[in-house]
Amino acid sequence: MSALPHDEYTIDRLCEHATRGLEDPSAIGVNDAALIEQFELAAAALGVALVGEPEPMPRNVRAALSAAAREHESPKLRLAGTPATPRKRGNISGATALGWIAAAACLTIAVYAWMNPRPPARPSAPSIAAQYDALAACPGVVRASWVGLDDLLGVPAHAYDEELAGEIIWDHDSQTGFMKFTGLAANEPDEFQYQLWIFDAERRVGDLPQFAIEGLPDLLTQRPVDGGVFDAATLARTNTPGEIIIPIDAKLPVGNAAIFAITVEPPGGVVVSDRDIVTAAIAG
Fold first, then answer.
1. Tens-place pLDDT, residues 80-98
2. Closest by alpha carbon to 260, among 274, 280, 232?
3. What is the torsional sign of CA 138, 140, 145, 149?
4. How far apart are CA 261 and CA 177, in angstroms?
5. Among 16, 30, 206, 230, fewest CB within 10 Å belongs to which?
6. Segment 11-35, tens digit of pLDDT
7. How far apart are CA 264 and CA 25, in angstroms?
8. Average pLDDT over residues 196-220
9. What are phi and psi for residue 166, nearest 5 degrees?
């Protein structure tokens, strides 16, 4: 057995050659072919021990294994009755043994790294603000500003309208959208939640005549599409003070979004709302 090099750099290069198959072994800086072969055979043995699924091994490791197999398959013949030549055993010092143990540990790590490459890092998901900006930049997106009851109907503003402002965007093609608010009062989810309703110009009207309002479209008498229940929570806030962005969760396809309304509902939302409207937005 060849003596192990004393410097860590050479050992690392030998491990790299044995596990990754450098094209030019001389690049290692070691002229001891037997030592190089010992590392290659050790890498192959470790590979067999650690392998889960068969993988291609470096060409130099395969060649070393093939050469070793040929040597053991063709032993020298001797006449019957003649004693076999005893195999010489070298004495290995304790320091050399410890060095080989350390090299074996390094080689084990190198083989494991070769056989278990680290998967590429997953790209982080864009922030909700970045998603909002990306959708807002798409052509054909519906955009409408929130309007308070005082401006919409000439009645006092809702109690949860704290100088509410913002807008809603909706993309018909992807059936996705976002709501942006400032001035929407924070809610306790176990007490009440906000719910979005989408009035679709292509849906039937007149099912709920009690909600007709003089001077406003007959769309208010239809059964609107449930756009999802949400909270004005801290988790939805952006870097702009007091601003929140909420994704729309439409429960049915929307053909032509015309009016959006936010109502106050019991926790979990409802199927038919009593229309406690906080704010609304009318598409242009």
1. 555 555 555 555 455 555 5
2. 280
3. negative
4. 14
5. 206
6. 666 666 666 665 565 666 666 677 6
7. 74
8. 91
9. 130, -165
